[in-house]
Amino acid sequence: MAHRKRLLAELSGEARRHMAAYALFNQAVADHLRLHPTDVQCLNLLDLEPGPVTAGRVAELTGLTTGSVTRLVDRLERAGYVTRERDAVDRRRVLVAVVPERMAALGRLWERLNAPWAAMFDAYTDDQLAFLTTHMRHAVELSAAQVEHLRAEGP
């Protein structure tokens, strides 16, 4: 049991280093693009959506309040990454749509930055990649639950 306890402690430390490294990486990308780090992650999430989304969906994706989403979309619109458009079905609704040319430019940056990651993953077996994918999926779900818990708890 002492071995497992040591492994869990090591995993915890590496997880903290990983999260800090990613936060710092995200900040560097945001600085490079002259965006806020949350804006970069919002663009990342919007790129995974099948099409334009409502501001409410942006709030769901990011966990931000509607007021914060409005400011975020304002910033992204000023930077040329998104547009607001009326919903063709319900003209009262406004949809947030990514600008394909700007997302293509962002995609080229990600491709360049991801090349070393791809090389790192080449060293993993298919089973290891499947494990990592499952781990990441579970980590995303747990993170979302923890965010919800913290917000319900309040400051």
Can you describe what's shown?
This protein is mainly α and 155 residues long. The chain has one domain (1-123): Winged helix-like DNA-binding domain superfamily/Winged helix DNA-binding domain (Arc Repressor Mutant, subunit A, Orthogonal Bundle), CATH 1.10.10.10. Helices cover 74% and strands 8% of the residues. The chain has six helices and three strands, in the order ααβααββαα. It has a three-stranded antiparallel beta sheet. A hairpin with a 7-residue loop joins β2 (82-86) and β3. The protein is globular, with a radius of gyration of 18 Å. The protein starts with a helix and ends with a helix. It comes from Streptomyces ficellus. InterPro entries: ArsR-like_HTH, HTH_MarR-typ, MarR/SlyA-like, WH-like_DNA-bd_sf, WH_DNA-bd_sf. This is MarR family transcriptional regulator. Pfam families: MarR_2. One of its GO terms (molecular function) is DNA-binding transcription factor activity.
Morphology: globular
Strand order of the largest sheet: 1-3-2
**Helix and strand sequence:** HHEHHEEHH
Query: Kindly, what is the distance between the CA atoms of the first and last residues, rounded to a whole number of angstroms?
Result: 36 Å
* Mean pLDDT rating: 93
Q: What is the CATH superfamily classification?
A: Winged helix-like DNA-binding domain superfamily/Winged helix DNA-binding domain
The major β-sheet equals: 3 strands, antiparallel
Level of helix content? Answer: over 70%
In what range is the share of β-strand residues? 5-15%
- Gyration radius (Cα, Å) is 18 Å
Highest-level CATH class: Mainly Alpha
Q: Helix count?
A: 6
Total strands: the figure is 3
Provide the number of structural domains. Answer: 1
The CATH topology comes to Arc Repressor Mutant, subunit A
Q: What is the correct CATH architecture?
A: Orthogonal Bundle
Structural class, from helix and strand content? mainly alpha
Low-pLDDT ranges = none
